[in-house]
Amino acid sequence: MSTTHWLIIERDEDYIAKYGEDPDQPERKFSIECSDPAACPGWIECREDHSDATDEDNDRGLDGDEVMLHGEAHTYRYGYDWCVDFPGCVVIERAFEGDDHLEIARTHGLGRHEIDTDWDDDTCYLIAVSDPAEAAS
Ligand SMILES: [Zn+2]
Fold this sequence. Notes:
Layout: E1 5-11, H1 13-19, E2 28-34, E3 43-45, H2 55-62, E4 67-69, E5 72-77, E6 81-85, H3 90-94, H4 100-108, E7 111-120, E8 123-128, H5 132-136
Antiparallel strand pairs: 1-2, 1-7, 3-6, 4-5, 5-6, 7-8
C-alpha cells in the first residue's frame, strides 16, 4: 500500500457558533488527508472519444495491458470501458458517499484517525485502523 489516509473529525465551529451545540448530536466536520495524493492509486472511467482505438488497442486492453489513447495511459475495465488514472486522491473524492465516516465519529470521536479503505466496485468503505477503546483514551 503506497499511500496512507486519515479521517479528520473536528467540531463544526461555524455551525455551532451559528446554531448552538446539541450535545446529543454534535455537529462534525469531516475531511480526508492523503499522504501522497499524486501517487494515490485510483481510476475513473474516461469520457473522451475512443473511436480512434484500433482493433489491436482493444485486444491489448482486453488482455489487461495499458494502452495509450489520446496521449494518456488507459486500462480497460469490464462494465466501465476505458479508464484512466484518477487525478489526485480518489478516497478524498469518494469517502463521504457512504455513512462510514459518521460511524467512525460515533465510535472514535474527534481527532485524526488512520483509516484503511476497502473498495467494492466504486463504493469506498472506510475502516478505522485503531480500535475505539484505544482512540478514546
Ligand atoms: Zn489518497
